[in-house]
Design goal:
Helix content of chain B: over 70%
Number of strands of chain B: 7
Number of strands of chain C: 19
CATH architecture of the largest domain in chain C: 3-Layer(aba) Sandwich
Number of helices of chain B: 23
Structural class of chain C: alpha/beta
CATH class of the largest domain in chain B: Mainly Alpha
Shape of chain C: globular
Distance between the termini of chain B: 80 Å
CATH class of the largest domain in chain C: Alpha Beta
Oligomer: heterotrimer
Largest interface: B-C, 53 and 52 residues
Largest sheet of chain C: 7 strands, mixed
Number of helices of chain C: 13
Distance between the termini of chain C: 52 Å
Structural class of chain B: mainly alpha
CATH topology of the largest domain in chain B: ABC transporter involved in vitamin B12 uptake, BtuC
Number of domains of chain C: 2
Chains: A mainly alpha (406), B mainly alpha (584), C alpha/beta (429)
Strand order of the largest sheet of chain B: 4-3-2-1-5
Strand content of chain B: 5-15%
Order of helices and strands of chain B: HHHHHEEEEHEHHHHHHHHHHEEHHHHHHH
């Protein structure tokens, strides 16, 4: 068992050290996702290998959360800007697609009104509010669902970063933002269904949203988009733009003195992060079937930050691991001990920040590094001790030497 | 009983010549005489009436109350009062035996004879539940009893109770009560009571005029007009609701008459109408002024709540720079401490708050110090991580309270001196609990400013917050100061919890309701500036309350939040930014 | 003491899980319980979970159903609305329950609705709600608006002579809808617009100064005024406190509440609330043998003499018994068979009457008005002469007046049959 663990750590570390931590996560994700999908669609329900639709939606939800966590990691891990309001962008994206799904119901609502969603008919609205126009077109809805959170992030970020609202102040302001929006969306006058939110969806792009195939398709696209986001984020972080972002994190004033408009970099990164969160929301809503103002609640946003902290920030794949692990634990623990869960979650918050500041990814990398160092040490000592050179084949240091010799 | 009824008998007799026109009064006279003549019979019939209460239907009870008042007059006062207070009980075995039961301690009841108020027995809750059953009472009955009580206390009773009775009578003043008031008017010595009596009579006059068919061509009644003018003069400037209602109805009546051309008597009605209009206008103007004052008070009261909630944070966040997300839970701990204190001293609720304030301070401060020593001190220089860790602590504390005290809200009693309102006039009354909390918040604020500015702890706190290393070099035990400061901030939050327990639900989520507001107040006022916190909380409170009637509560909240968000973008350091080196 | 509680709970959990494992081997009828055990709604919903467990235990003592034992499967949706849908799916597909008792808030029901419809399961929803819904797969055992709000308003108008109305509520769907219906209803009875004041507050609102003051002002216009309160849970205590402090008593401005019951009042000093009203289909103080037995059984089950019973508990009781009866009638637990057997089933309610299952998936219920007493109980001051049939679609709003629900009539057989277009829209099963 322990050898397995160390093997895993070593392999992960090897991947990470060559800059490929993301690749391992990607491979694991892809394999799981495809196996699950195949088992759901192809294997009959009676079989023991069948994966239920319940599991598929559950996993799909986790993946959406992972994408959301990734978006927080991008801005917090790489730029040091802690947003306690990423739930805002997530929920806005969700509302965007929710509006589209709501319009797709058409005259199949309970009142049979072809123009107005049920809750509007019921509250005696005569016409569709202007901001609902065009939301019955899928691509318009998607664009709006990403653009609105992006725009909000731009305006908010531009105002905040320009006047150098940083650190804690920024966190508190984002929290106020999501809180204000939660209150606003609770209001029925807003035209988003108030506390009940948007629900009872029927079709997505003409596909029945309740059919297994649609669910699996959504699940697969979530996984693929998550992987795409991982790679895109890594690409951005490795680019010139990303390097400046990191330098802003490590010393904003210095970066500014070097002549970079740090505000601009931060704003665009914030917008990118908001857009990722919005996409997560877009994928989330059709899978869980409801969007309501509860998603704006400040505690949700804080929980996302904790996933990232648990997984390890500034690594991208750490956020994914954190989100998946914490949510899986949540599902398991709340079922077993509803009372104990909050104790566990609270302790997790405290424990991770105090004892595991770099999160799981950081811990793995550190111990892997230590392991590697030890292995190197062992190998060298073995080298010196062993007479025959067979063990040399396993020596990772062989490769570079080989490359050099020809 | 005999002695008291003498006075009662005399009054109607002297008045009889003057107001014999009122038939109900005759009835009044008849029963008073009747009751005087047959004193022993009265007692018996009273007993039989009371005995009927236990099994009577609500409709029957209504007439029984009337009869009790008629039969016993003033002697029915304690019985009716006990009935109103829900203290009348009867024996399950013998339904016609009615007693007064007074809850003495949490679990004990004193059973009194309702006629002699002598103690019958003193039993615990279980025995009480087993043997006694309550004489049920409902709204209509309550209203009826209140009216009866005010009629009775009008003839006897203190000045205050007379005033109260008159105010109660004014709303539903009818012939019989008006004649009663009129008869008592002559004998009354106290000036304010007399004045109020005349107002009641004037209202009655107006009501009659509204109801009656006066002012048509047939009855060209100048004396009636004069009477009404007099009544109107009396009512000028009165703020009582019933006065305004009577005036509005009278005005409507006059307007109806005006519309009815055939019976329109210009000379009579026009001056009356304009006079009524003028009086209504002046009353409304005055009412509006007092409503403005009331709104201001509401704003200040909300501000005081915000101040209390935020002031502890102004220390931990403002001075020490720690993002304490568990701040709300410190408030919650204070509120729960109040609950526990009240549990421990159930018979001294009136004094419980004086014990609860120091107790809450200690509890919250201790918890704060423990948090600081075990978690926060490892996180210095990492403010964002403190935020997460303290959020975790807040989750743990909330769940701990849930497991210890149940997830249900706990009841914290209001001491009697905090309930009710200070009635400045019929329009403006300031509730005592808000008033005390407003004063308390200022007191806490002053005390805190004193600690920070004038004590050596305060000096150390300021030194450490301005330059930790330098302070350390000068021999300040920074670790110690950190712990104490955090304890101080938490303790003050605990004290706030005591105050808030008087206003809102004491439950595990109490703190959550205030955490975001507290942060907003501190940030808006300017971090590290206690004065800023004071100004911010009161201005935000007032802004909220003045916006509320126009926009509704929810939108007012949202607008205030949005305003703060925008304001911080404009002035990142808040209203009163710290100057100099401490700023960075 | 609490440590002991935790330990006993753990032991019980271990034992029950052991029992479940052994029971799994046998053939049982599974009853899903979908009530929040944590989060904000836990306060109210935990009681209902216990009620269902008690009913299951009771049924098993009687020998179960169809010769099989009942087995309760409890999950915790944690007051998280999307989680309700997820847990419902878990109950139906993983645990394969035969029936679900659950949900409290409207939004949780709306969240679960597509799942139970998709998987053709059966949900019993035990709380009074805003109506405007009749799903094939849901039985609404609580009150529809015509079984609570409208009779209460009638009472105020007729018995207390109320002419001016304050409709105060928390800003969410149930109060919005109820107030909409009441507004239309009052207007149809000739109440002028200026005599109706509507005010909404957020969840958990605690600063009631301004609103109480404006209610006072509104009530000072010479006409008898009453407040119809759809204020939710937590916010009620500060609201009533403020009423008391500002001197608004039940005899000058009575407040009739639709969401304040025995449970909400338990443990509180109700003297400032004295005489204010509540409208429900059940009060603990109702006098009937069934009620006495139920209260006794509940106190014994929960091992706490101070615990109270309330309306949603009665709704759960009625729903459970109706389901049990339908299962026996259908001789099966198959959803479609049970559903068809449900219509017309009559079970005794706890107020001494009979609850009948209607083809629109609602029940007949008596409406009671109670005045709050100083012991936290209600004195029943008025009740409808006989049970009122629940109406899914209110007659007081134009859009829904033309819709009827009938799942029995083979010609209609849907939950939202439009009598004008003669069509059902959106029924995808």
């Amino acid at each position: 068992m322990s050898t397995l663990k160390s093997l895993f750590i070593a392999s992960l570390a090897a991947g990470r050290l060559t800059g490929n931590g993301i690749q391992y996560v990607t491979i694991i994700l892809l394999v799981t996702v495809f196996i699950c999908s195949a088992c759901n669609l192809l294997i009959p329900e009676s079989s023991a290998f069948h994966v239920s639709t319940y599991t598929i939606t559950l996993l799909g939800k986790y993946l959406c959360f992972a994408l959301l966590a990734l978006s927080v990691d991008v801005i917090w891990g790489y730029c040091g800007v802690l947003s306690l309001g990423h739930g805002t962008f997530f929920a806005l994206g969700g509302y965007g697609i929710g509006m589209y799904l709501m319009r797709q119901i058409g005259d199949r609502g309970v009142y049979g009104n072809p123009d107005l969603p049920d809750f509007m008919v019921f509250l005696n609205w005569d016409t569709l509010p202007w901001y609902w126009y065009g939301m019955d077109q899928f691509w318009i809805a998607i664009v709006v669902a990403v653009a609105v959170p992006g725009l909000l992030a731009f305006v908010f970020g531009w105002l905040a970063f320009r006047s150098r609202v940083t650190g804690v102040y920024f966190s508190i302001m984002t929290q106020a933002l999501t809180y204000a929006l939660m209150l606003a969306f609770f209001r029925n006058e807003m035209g988003f269904g108030g506390n009940n939110g948007l629900t009872d969806f029927k079709e997505l792009l003409g596909f029945d949203i309740q059919s297994n195939a649609t669910r699996v398709a959504l699940f697969l696209s979530t996984a693929l988009l998550l992987i795409a986001a991982l790679y895109l984020s890594r690409y951005i972080m490795k680019s010139r733009f990303g390097r400046i972002i990191v330098s802003i994190r490590d010393g904003e004033s210095r970066t500014r003195f070097l002549g970079y408009m740090t505000n601009h970099y931060k704003v665009w990164l914030f917008v990118y992060s908001a857009a990722l969160a919005a996409i997560a929301g877009i994928l989330y809503v059709p899978q869980v079937g409801i969007i309501n103002p509860g998603e704006f609640s400040p505690i949700n946003s804080i929980e996302v930050v904790v996933w990232v902290a648990v997984g390890g920030r500034g690594t991208l794949y750490g956020a994914v691991i954190g989100a998946l692990l914490v949510n899986y634990a949540k599902t398991k623990f709340t079922a077993l001990m509803p009372d104990g869960w909050l104790f566990a979650l609270g302790a997790l918050f405290v424990g991770v920040t105090v004892f595991l500041p770099d999160g799981i990814a950081g811990y793995l990398e550190n111990s892997a590094r230590a392991l590697q160092a030890k292995a190197d040490l062992d190998n060298t000592s073995e080298d010196s001790l062993s007479k025959d050179g067979t063990s040399k084949d396993n020596n990772p240091k062989d490769k570079p030497t080989e490359e050099v010799t020809p | 009983m005999h002695g008291t009824s003498v006075i009662k008998r005399k009054i109607p007799l002297t008045a009889v010549a003057r107001v014999a026109i009122f038939p109900p009064l005759l009835l009044l006279i008849i029963w008073t005489r009747f009751c005087f003549a047959e004193d022993t019979f009265t007692e018996q019939s009273l007993h039989s009436l009371v005995a009927q209460l236990s099994s009577a239907s609500f409709a029957k009870k209504l007439t029984l109350v009337d009869e009790i008042e008629e039969v016993a007059g003033e002697a029915s006062l304690p019985i009716l009062e006990a009935f109103l207070a829900g203290q009348l009980y009867y024996l399950k075995q013998e339904q016609d035996k009615v007693f007064q039961a007074v809850k003495i301690e949490q679990d004990n009841y004193q059973i009194l004879d309702i006629y002699t108020t002598a103690q019958v027995e003193y039993i615990d809750k279980q025995a009480f539940r087993a043997r006694y059953k309550k004489v049920r009472i409902n709204n209509r009955l309550r209203k009826k009893i209140k009216l009866s009580l005010s009629r009775i206390s009008l003839s006897s009773g203190s000045e205050a109770s007379k005033m109260q009775a008159l105010n109660a009578l004014m709303d539903g003043v009818d012939e019989s009560s008006a004649s009663l008031v009129e008869s008592l008017y002559v004998k009354e010595r106290s000036k304010p009571v007399k004045k109020l009596m005349s107002v009641v009579l004037a209202v009655h006059q107006l009501k009659q005029a509204t109801r009656g068919a006066t002012f048509n061509q047939q009855t060209d009644d100048q004396t009636e007009k004069q009477k009404i003018t007099q009544a109107l003069d009396l009512l000028d400037g009165r703020l009582e609701v019933s006065v305004k209602v009577a005036l509005i109805n009278f005005k409507a009546h006059l307007e109806d008459l005006t519309a009815d051309d055939a019976n329109y008597n210009h000379d009579l009605i026009n001056p009356l109408l304009s006079k009524t209009n003028a009086i209504i206008h002046s009353i409304e103007e005055e009412i509006n002024f007092f409503l403005f004052v009331e709104k201001l008070f509401f704003g200040l009261s909300l501000g005081s709540v915000l101040l209390l909630a935020a002031i502890g944070l102004a220390i931990t966040f403002g001075v020490m720079g720690i993002i304490n997300m568990a701040h709300g839970e410190m408030i919650m701990l204070g509120a729960y401490t109040t609950y526990v204190v009240q549990l421990l001293m159930p018979n001294l609720i009136n004094y419980s708050l004086f014990v609860a304030v120091p107790a809450a301070f200690l509890v919250a401060a201790l918890v704060g110090i423990v948090i600081q020593r075990t978690v926060i001190r490892y996180l210095y220089g990492r403010p964002l991580e403190t935020l997460l860790a303290t959020f975790g602590i807040s989750l743990i504390l909330r769940q701990a309270v849930r497991t210890l005290f149940s997830p249900l809200n706990r009841q914290v009693d209001q001491p009697s001196w905090m309930s009710g309102a200070l009635e400045l006039n019929p329009v403006l009354s300031l509730t005592y609990n808000r008033l005390y909390i407003l004063a308390f918040s200022l007191l806490v604020f002053i005390a805190l400013v004193f600690v920070i500015k004038k004590t050596s702890l305060g000096l150390n706190v300021r030194a450490v917050s301005q330059n930790r290393d330098m302070a350390k070099a000068m021999g300040v035990k920074t670790e110690w100061v950190d712990a104490l400061t955090f304890g101080l901030g938490s303790g003050v939050a605990g004290v706030a919890g005591v105050a808030l327990s008087q206003l809102t639900n004491v439950g595990p989520n109490l703190g959550q309701a205030y955490i975001i507001d507290s942060f907003m107040v501190v940030v808006f006022g300017g971090v590290g500036n206690l004065m800023g916190t004071l100004v911010a909380s009161f201005s935000l409170g007032a802004a909220n309350k003045f916006m509320e009637p126009i926009t509704g509560t929810v939108l007012a909240n949202i607008l205030v939040l949005v305003f703060i968000i925008l304001f911080i973008q404009k002035r990142p350091r808040g209203l009163f930014p710290q100057k100099g080196r401490a700023a960075e | 003491m609490n440590l002991r509680k935790i330990i006993t709970r753990l032991v019980v959990a271990v034992i029950t899980s052991a029992v479940t494992v052994s029971a799994m081997a046998k053939d049982t009828i599974k009853v899903g319980v979908l009530h929040s055990l944590s989060g904000t709604m836990a306060i109210s919903e935990t009681t209902l979970k216990d009620t269902v467990l008690m009913m299951v235990e009771e049924q098993n003592k009687k020998g179960g159903l169809l010769g099989k034992k009942l087995e309760a499967v409890v999950v915790d949706p944690a007051s998280d609305w999307p989680l309700f849908a997820e847990k419902a799916r878990e109950l139906i597909t993983k645990e394969k329950v035969d029936v679900i008792f659950g949900c409290w808030t409207s939004v949780s029901r709306k969240s679960v609705l597509p799942v139970v419809e998709e998987l053709n399961a059966l949900l019993f929803y035990p709380v009074q709600y805003e109506g405007e819904e009749s799903s094939k797969n849901v039985f609404y055992t609580g009150a529809a608006p015509n079984q609570q709000a409208i009779p209460a308003v009638d009472y105020l108008e007729k018995e207390l002579g109320v002419k001016r109305w304050v409709l105060a509520g928390t800003d969410y769907v149930y109060p919005r809808t109820t107030n909409k219906i009441l507004e239309a209803y009052l207007k149809s009875k000739g109440v002028a617009k200026k005599d109706i004041m509507i005010s909404y507050t957020p969840f958990g609102h605690s600063d009631w100064q301004g609103i109480v003051s404006s209610v006072k002002k509104f009530g000072a216009e010479g006409k008898k005024t009453a407040v119809v309160s759809t204020i939710n849970g937590d916010a009620n205590v500060p609201f009533y406190k403020e009423l008391g402090n500002q001197g608004v008593t039940a005899d000058n401005i009575p407040v009739v509440a639709f969401s304040v019951g025995e449970e909400e009042l338990s443990g509180f000093d109700t003297s400032p609330l004295l005489g204010h009203l509540a409208a429900w289909n059940y009060f603990q103080s109702a006098e009937s043998d069934a009620n006495d037995a139920f209260i006794k059984q509940w106190k014994k089950y929960i091992k706490d003499k101070s615990r109270v019973t309330n309306d949603p508990m009665e709704a759960t009781y009625i729903g459970f018994n109706a389901w049990a009866k339908a299962v026996e009638k259908a001789k099966s637990t198959k959803v479609d068979k049970v559903r068809k057997a449900m219509y017309g089933i009559k079970v005794p309610n706890l107020t001494g009457g009979i609850a009948e299952v209607l083809p629109n998936h609602h029940f007949t219920k008596p409406v009671l008005i109670g005045e709050i007493q100083d012991d936290g109980q209600f004195e029943i001051v008025w009740e409808t002469p006989k049970e009122v049939p629940g109406d899914a679609w209110t007659d007081h709003l134009a859009e829904s007046a033309k819709i009827v629900s009938d799942w029995k009539d083979s010609k209609i057989n849907c939950g939202n049959y439009n009598t004008q277009t003669k069509k059902c829209s959106g029924q995808n099963y």
